[in-house]
Protein backbone atom coordinates (compact mmCIF):
# COMPACT_ATOMS: atom_id res chain seq x y z
CA UNK A 1 0.00 0.00 0.00
CA UNK A 2 1.17 3.49 -0.80
CA UNK A 3 0.74 6.71 1.19
CA UNK A 4 -1.80 8.14 -1.28
CA UNK A 5 -3.98 5.02 -0.98
CA UNK A 6 -4.05 5.35 2.80
CA UNK A 7 -4.88 9.05 2.58
CA UNK A 8 -7.84 8.21 0.31
CA UNK A 9 -9.09 5.45 2.63
CA UNK A 10 -8.93 7.26 5.97
CA UNK A 11 -11.70 9.86 5.41
CA UNK A 12 -14.16 7.07 4.58
CA UNK A 13 -13.62 5.25 7.91
CA UNK A 14 -15.38 5.61 11.26
CA UNK A 15 -12.56 3.78 13.07
CA UNK A 16 -9.07 2.54 12.24
CA UNK A 17 -8.45 -1.19 12.58
CA UNK A 18 -5.21 -3.02 11.88
CA UNK A 19 -5.35 -6.79 11.40
CA UNK A 20 -2.36 -9.11 11.69
CA UNK A 21 -1.72 -11.81 9.07
CA UNK A 22 -3.20 -14.45 11.43
CA UNK A 23 -6.52 -12.54 11.52
CA UNK A 24 -6.21 -11.07 15.00
CA UNK A 25 -6.67 -7.34 15.44
CA UNK A 26 -4.31 -4.92 17.09
CA UNK A 27 -5.88 -3.57 20.27
CA UNK A 28 -8.06 -0.52 19.60
CA UNK A 29 -5.81 1.56 21.87
CA UNK A 30 -2.74 1.28 19.59
CA UNK A 31 -0.58 4.34 18.92
CA UNK A 32 1.25 5.43 15.79
CA UNK A 33 4.54 6.34 17.45
CA UNK A 34 6.53 7.09 14.30
CA UNK A 35 6.04 7.92 10.67
CA UNK A 36 9.43 7.93 9.03
CA UNK A 37 11.39 7.93 5.82
CA UNK A 38 13.61 4.86 5.55
CA UNK A 39 16.39 4.67 2.98
CA UNK A 40 18.42 1.53 2.37
CA UNK A 41 21.60 1.63 0.30
CA UNK A 42 23.14 -1.80 -0.16
CA UNK A 43 25.03 -4.26 -2.33
CA UNK A 44 23.24 -7.48 -3.20
CA UNK A 45 25.04 -10.84 -3.25
CA UNK A 46 25.68 -10.40 -6.98
CA UNK A 47 27.58 -7.16 -6.38
CA UNK A 48 24.82 -4.84 -7.67
CA UNK A 49 24.43 -1.58 -5.76
CA UNK A 50 20.81 -0.89 -4.88
CA UNK A 51 18.70 1.76 -3.13
CA UNK A 52 15.25 1.48 -1.61
CA UNK A 53 13.19 4.21 0.00
CA UNK A 54 9.89 3.82 1.78
CA UNK A 55 7.63 5.13 4.51
CA UNK A 56 7.72 3.38 7.87
CA UNK A 57 4.93 3.40 10.43
CA UNK A 58 5.62 2.17 13.93
CA UNK A 59 2.55 0.89 15.77
CA UNK A 60 2.66 0.43 19.53
CA UNK A 61 0.29 -0.26 22.36
CA UNK A 62 0.40 0.87 25.97
CA UNK A 63 -1.84 0.54 28.98
CA UNK A 64 -3.92 3.61 28.10
CA UNK A 65 -7.00 1.63 27.12
CA UNK A 66 -9.11 4.75 26.49
CA UNK A 67 -6.81 5.90 23.66
CA UNK A 68 -8.38 5.68 20.20
CA UNK A 69 -6.76 7.09 17.10
CA UNK A 70 -9.47 8.61 14.91
CA UNK A 71 -9.12 8.46 11.13
CA UNK A 72 -8.96 12.28 10.86
CA UNK A 73 -6.16 12.41 13.46
CA UNK A 74 -4.18 9.77 11.55
CA UNK A 75 -4.70 11.73 8.34
CA UNK A 76 -3.38 14.83 10.14
CA UNK A 77 -0.29 12.87 11.24
CA UNK A 78 0.29 11.84 7.61
CA UNK A 79 -0.05 15.45 6.48
CA UNK A 80 2.48 16.57 9.11
CA UNK A 81 4.86 13.83 7.97
CA UNK A 82 4.98 15.24 4.42
CA UNK A 83 7.90 17.46 5.51
CA UNK A 84 9.85 14.24 6.20
CA UNK A 85 8.41 11.94 3.52
CA UNK A 86 8.28 14.52 0.75
CA UNK A 87 5.76 14.34 -2.06
CA UNK A 88 6.77 10.92 -3.43
CA UNK A 89 4.05 8.26 -3.13
CA UNK A 90 6.02 5.76 -1.07
CA UNK A 91 5.28 2.16 -0.18
CA UNK A 92 4.41 1.70 3.49
CA UNK A 93 6.13 -0.74 5.81
CA UNK A 94 4.72 -1.24 9.31
CA UNK A 95 6.67 -2.17 12.43
CA UNK A 96 4.76 -3.76 15.28
CA UNK A 97 6.18 -5.22 18.49
CA UNK A 98 5.57 -8.91 18.98
CA UNK A 99 8.19 -11.33 20.38
CA UNK A 100 10.56 -9.08 18.42
CA UNK A 101 9.85 -6.14 16.13
CA UNK A 102 7.82 -7.51 13.24
CA UNK A 103 7.98 -5.82 9.84
CA UNK A 104 4.94 -6.01 7.62
CA UNK A 105 3.61 -4.73 4.35
CA UNK A 106 0.23 -3.03 4.39
CA UNK A 107 -2.99 -3.59 2.46
CA UNK A 108 -6.55 -2.29 2.78
CA UNK A 109 -9.57 -4.55 2.35
CA UNK A 110 -12.18 -1.77 2.25
CA UNK A 111 -12.75 -1.90 6.01
CA UNK A 112 -9.49 -2.78 7.76
CA UNK A 113 -5.81 -2.15 7.23
CA UNK A 114 -4.16 -5.55 6.95
CA UNK A 115 -0.55 -6.18 7.96
CA UNK A 116 0.87 -8.48 5.31
CA UNK A 117 3.84 -10.84 5.68
CA UNK A 118 7.16 -9.77 4.21
CA UNK A 119 9.67 -12.22 2.78
CA UNK A 120 13.37 -12.08 2.14
CA UNK A 121 14.63 -12.94 -1.33
CA UNK A 122 17.85 -13.27 -3.26
CA UNK A 123 17.96 -10.30 -5.64
CA UNK A 124 20.76 -11.80 -7.72
CA UNK A 125 19.57 -15.34 -8.27
CA UNK A 126 21.33 -15.57 -11.63
CA UNK A 127 24.66 -14.62 -9.98
CA UNK A 128 24.08 -17.22 -7.27
CA UNK A 129 23.36 -19.99 -9.76
CA UNK A 130 19.67 -20.28 -8.86
CA UNK A 131 17.67 -20.98 -12.03
CA UNK A 132 14.72 -18.63 -12.55
CA UNK A 133 11.55 -20.02 -11.03
CA UNK A 134 13.43 -22.79 -9.23
CA UNK A 135 13.72 -21.12 -5.83
CA UNK A 136 11.12 -22.10 -3.25
CA UNK A 137 11.07 -22.22 0.51
CA UNK A 138 11.11 -25.76 1.91
CA UNK A 139 7.73 -27.12 2.90
CA UNK A 140 7.88 -27.72 6.63
CA UNK A 141 5.88 -30.47 8.30
CA UNK A 142 3.94 -30.00 11.52
CA UNK A 143 5.72 -31.09 14.68
CA UNK A 144 4.49 -34.44 15.93
CA UNK A 145 3.84 -35.72 12.44
CA UNK A 146 6.70 -38.19 12.37
CA UNK A 147 9.64 -35.76 12.26
CA UNK A 148 12.99 -37.37 11.61
CA UNK A 149 16.45 -35.82 11.49
CA UNK A 150 16.90 -34.19 8.12
CA UNK A 151 13.18 -34.57 7.36
CA UNK A 152 12.58 -30.82 6.94
CA UNK A 153 10.16 -30.44 9.85
CA UNK A 154 12.34 -28.43 12.20
Describe the structure.
The protein is an alpha/beta fold and about 150 residues long. It has one domain (about 5-120). It is built from four helices and six strands; from the N terminus they run H-E-E-E-H-H-E-E-E-H. The protein has helices at about 5-10, 70-80, 80-85, 125-130; strands at about 20, 30-45, 50-60, 90-95, 100-110, 115. Strands 1-6-5-4-3-2 form a six-stranded mixed sheet. Strand 4 and strand 5 form a beta hairpin. It is globular, with a radius of gyration of 19 Å.
Secondary structure blueprint with pairings:
Elements: H1 3-9, E1 18-19, E2 30-43, E3 49-61, H2 71-80, H3 82-85, E4 92-97, E5 101-108, E6 113-117, H4 125-128
Parallel strand pairs: 1-6, 3-4
Antiparallel strand pairs: 2-3, 4-5, 5-6
> Separation of termini?
33 Å
Q: What pattern of helices and strands is seen along the backbone?
A: HEEEHHEEEH
Radius of gyration based on Cα positions: 19 Å
Q: Let me know the largest β-sheet.
A: 6 strands, mixed
The total of beta strands comes to: 6
- Label the overall shape: globular
Overall number of domains: 1
pLDDT under 50 segments (min length 5)? none
From the helix content, strand content and strand pairing, which structural class follows?
Answer: alpha/beta
pLDDT averaged over residues: 88
Strand proportion, as a percent range, falls in 25-35%
Strand order of the largest sheet: 1-6-5-4-3-2
- Tally of DSSP helical segments: 4
Q: What portion of residues is helical?
A: 10-25%
Amino acid sequence: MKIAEMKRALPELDAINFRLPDGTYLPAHFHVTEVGLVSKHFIDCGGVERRETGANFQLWEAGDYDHRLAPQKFLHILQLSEKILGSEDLDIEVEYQQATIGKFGLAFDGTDFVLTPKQTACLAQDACGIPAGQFALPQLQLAGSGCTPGGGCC
